[in-house]
Design a protein that fits this description.
Structural class: mainly alpha
Distance between the termini: 68 Å
């Protein structure tokens, strides 16, 4: 079942994001103890954050990947023009056309 793999990717991505947040907090605490100024996150923490975010997003998108084709021809190939353009909310029978016709 492919959905189990994608659920695992979401779980790994979320765990990676939590670990990256904890690592960033620990790095910040280390800089305070060492009396150093914070300039930016180390590259390994930023890389871990981006990879984890990518895993989580990919897993989320593919979890329920029941995508439809975006071409209009596949959606409307079995319908006539009258079936496509029916907008019952725009039908108004109480209008001034009746008085103009009379």
């Amino acid at each position: 079942r492919p959905s189990r793999m994608f659920k695992l990717l979401v779980l790994l991505g979320a765990a990676g994001l939590l670990h990256a947040a904890y690592s960033a907090s620990e790095h910040r605490d280390y800089l305070k103890v060492a009396h150093e100024e914070f300039t930016s996150l180390p590259v390994d923490i930023a890389f871990e954050c981006l990879v984890s975010l990518g895993l989580a997003l990919f897993g989320t998108v593919m979890w329920n990947a029941d995508f439809k084709d975006i071409h209009w021809t596949s959606t409307y190939k079995d319908k006539t023009f009258d079936q496509i353009s029916t907008r019952s909310s725009f039908y108004r029978f109480q209008h001034r056309g009746r008085t103009l016709k009379a």
